[in-house]
Structures are given as C-alpha cells and as structure tokens.
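# nightly structure sweep
# worker-07 picked up a monomer target from the shared queue
# config: single-sequence mode, recycle default, output format = structure tokens
# input follows
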Amino acid sequence: MIEKAMELYRKYREMILYLLFGGLTTLVNIFSYFVLTDLGRVNYLVSTAIAWVLSVLFAYFTNRVWVFQSTASGVGAIIREMGSFFGCRLLSGVIDMAIMFLCVSLLGLPDKPIKILANVVVIILNYLFSKLFVFKKPGRS
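# output follows
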C-alpha cells in the first residue's frame, strides 16, 4: 500500500505540491485580507491588492523551489522567470479584483464568500499559467 501511494505521489508530485502550496498561498491571501479588512478596517479593494502582493511573493518562492523545481540560473534567466511569474500573477490579480468589484460593488454580494470563490478561480488560472508559460520545461513548446 505504501509503495502504491509512493508511485501515485511520484506520478502526480507536481500537482500535489502545487495544490499544497496553492492552498497555503490561498491561506496567506485570505488571512491577510481578513486581517486588513476586519482588524485594520482597510477598504476591501486595497486589502485585496495588499493580500495579492503578499501571496504572490510567497507563491513565487514555493513554486520555484518545490513545485516546478526551476533550473533557471543566472541573473538574467531568474529575472525573466520572475517577470513572467509576476506578470501572470498580475493578470490573475486583476481577475481577482474584477470578480470582487463585480460581485461586491455591483451585485451587492457579501465580500468574504466571494473572496474565497475568487481564490478558487485564481488557483486554477495560476497553475495553468505557471505550467504553460513560467516554469515550462526545456523542449516543451
């Protein structure tokens, strides 16, 4: 049974680790958001932006080291990798902000459940962006 579990882990390692660190990134995002809005009384859009920055920093390092095991080396390669990672995360951050604005400001829905829903959408998009554009393996087009 342990051997079967290890075989499944080896086969799906990247996805398992992405979900683990994606979940932790989501916790960083949501925790930051809740602290800022509830304790800091910061506007929900400003809180969303700050939570995004904190979670993207956390995500870059965990994705680079553990999930996709980036082999990019040298200042230029790492800056390009970071640039594409942050660019893709900026796009998903804009989508996060748009979901929040549309659902909370325009539709009048409660912000906390919408924030959680927006994070599910963002996790899926970020995996696809990272896999296809940021940390793609050499030889994969």
